[in-house]
Design goal:
- The protein has 13 helices and 20 strands.
- By secondary structure, the chain is α+β, with helices and mostly antiparallel strands.
- It folds into four domains: 120 residues, Rossmann fold; 141 residues, 2-Layer Sandwich (D-amino Acid Aminotransferase, Chain A, domain 1); 71 residues, Dna Ligase, domain 1 (2-Layer Sandwich); 93 residues, Aldehyde Oxidoreductase, domain 3 (Alpha-Beta Complex), CATH 3.90.1170.
- The strands form four sheets. It has an eight-stranded antiparallel β-sheet with strand order 14-13-10-11-12-15-19-17, with helices on both faces. It has a five-stranded mixed β-sheet with strand order 1-4-3-2-5.
- It is globular and about 55 Å long.
- It starts with a strand and ends in a 9-residue tail after the last strand.
- The relative contact order is 0.11.
- The N terminus is likely disordered.
Length: 445
């Protein structure tokens, strides 16, 4: 049964109301999944939402449910049949995950409803990072050595005998946004990192009952975004991660830098990712891969069968001429058109671009956001968009991962020198964005 049904008066103007229009089903349209309703609506397609949890998840940006015709709750196995019965009456043309937590259910519903789907049989390889890497290893692809452990002690034992020795990487099996990802230089660090994972839930609210330990992959890390239809892929962009080390020793993401498609090692990475897509059964829809180019060649860190979390349509249209959300809607709605225009091809860099996730060492409660400072950053020549992540009353914590980065700033300009100059200016302004309450001896943040 529908847990939510938007009335005509409350529904966004983006929603396609024509009952004769084709319908797409989006499962868990969190984060950048919010760009999918607009992309489908532009092609005359209605969208309905399926929610895989009893309540909306609080750790990631919630779906804008007023942009959907309906929201259907499918949070337990006994709700699957009723959901399928309801959805089949809509004769959907597509079922896809809006973000990471919806991958398994989208695969299952797509298969049950008989639409283009990556299939439920291989879903685990697209969500469980251990299964993911083992699938690649079985296919002969270069990747990290790894083990999963139910206790910190077991994680330490494996790390002490890991191929290549220390450092090793400790992380959850199915989280995202660098949640609880730690590079460990010795047994004590492995124990502490593993205990932190096992004593927590991931950002999607699932309890971590096991922890993943992997050999460290030396090299430079890259993003590869794709969209697929019937096993044919288009590469939307390749971005190089530039990282920085915080005073506490954490290696965090600082900038994603868009590479020219003719730059090395873009072609090598793209070819490797196409093999990953085939191995993991990603034949339809978007994918967001992270790859490290090691001395022995590319190796997958992980891949999600969903949109890039840093994707923004207007920004990507400016620097790439097209964006992953619109391409995804096209691939499902007009597959022949997608295959004719994009299949087997790669992106063009219209102009240089950077996505900057800012760092802070500050800790406190936000009293207010200084809009004048936000406006000063926004007025810099290369700045396309400033995403302010915190509001009054929220706790600002020192940055240790993407979740604790307080600002995301999208930059693009014909001249990379302008982007670099604006990046330096941002460093002088970023700490003025948030005004924190003065700390007292009784404060517990």
């Amino acid at each position: 049964m529908a847990a939510f049904s938007a009335s005509r008066s409350s529904r966004s103007a983006l929603a396609v109301d024509d009952p004769a229009a084709p319908t797409a089903v989006i499962v868990d349209g969190y984060s950048t999944g919010n760009f999918l309703p607009r992309a489908f609506a532009a092609l005359g397609v209605r969208v309905v939402h399926v929610q895989s949890t009893p309540e909306l998840m609080s750790a990631i940006l919630a779906p804008k449910l007023d942009e959907y015709t309906d929201n259907h709750l499918c949070a337990a196995p006994d709700q699957l049949e009723a959901t399928c019965t309801t959805l089949v009456q809509l004769k959907p043309i597509a079922v896809l995950a809006g973000q990471e937590p919806g991958v398994r259910l989208a695969d299952l519903l797509g298969e049950r409803l008989g639409v283009a789907s990556n299939g439920a049989a291989s879903s685990d390889g697209r969500r469980d990072k251990f299964v993911m890497i083992e699938s690649l290893r079985s296919a002969g692809l270069h990747c990290a050595a790894q083990a999963k452990a139910a206790t910190a002690a077991d994680a330490v034992v494996w790390a002490q005998h890991a191929p290549g020795g220390f450092p090793v990487v400790v992380k959850p099996l199915s989280s995202a946004s660098t949640d609880h990802v730690v590079i460990c230089d010795g047994p004590e660090e492995v124990a502490a990192a593993a205990e932190a994972v096992l004593g927590s839930t991931d950002i999607f609210g699932d309890t971590n009952t096991e922890v993943l330990v992997q050999s460290y992959l030396p090299g430079t890390e890259y993003i590869v975004d794709t969209v697929s239809a019937d096993g044919c892929h288009y590469t939307c962009g390749v971005w190089q991660y530039r990282k920085r080390t915080t005073p506490s020793g954490n290696r965090i993401y600082d900038r994603d830098i868009l590479l020219d498609p003719d730059e090395k090692p873009v072609r090598e990475i793209v070819e490797y990712v196409e093999t990953v897509l085939k191995t993991l059964g990603i034949r339809y829809g978007p994918a967001h891969a992270e790859v490290i180019v090691t001395p022995n060649g590319p190796a997958l860190v992980e891949i999600g069968a969903r949109l890039n979390g840093n994707m923004h349509p207007g920004f990507h249209d400016r620097c790439l001429g097209v964006n992953q959300a619109d391409l995804t809607a096209l691939a499902y709605t007009r597959p022949d058109d997608f295959l004719d225009r994009y299949a087997g091809k790669s992106y063009t860099r219209v102009q240089p671009a950077v996505v900057h996730n800012t760092f802070t060492a500050r800790h406190g409660v936000v009293e207010k956001v200084d809009q004048r400072t936000v406006d000063r950053i926004s007025a810099l020549p290369s700045v396309h968009l400033v995403t302010v992540k915190l509001s009054a009353g929220r706790v600002m914590k020192p940055t240790v991962d993407l979740l604790t980065s307080p600002l995301r700033i999208f930059q693009t300009a014909p001249d990379p020198g302008v982007i670099e100059a604006d990046y330096r200016a941002i460093q002088d302004l970023k700490e003025q964005v948030y005004q924190l309450y003065p700390k007292t001896s009784d404060d517990r943040w």
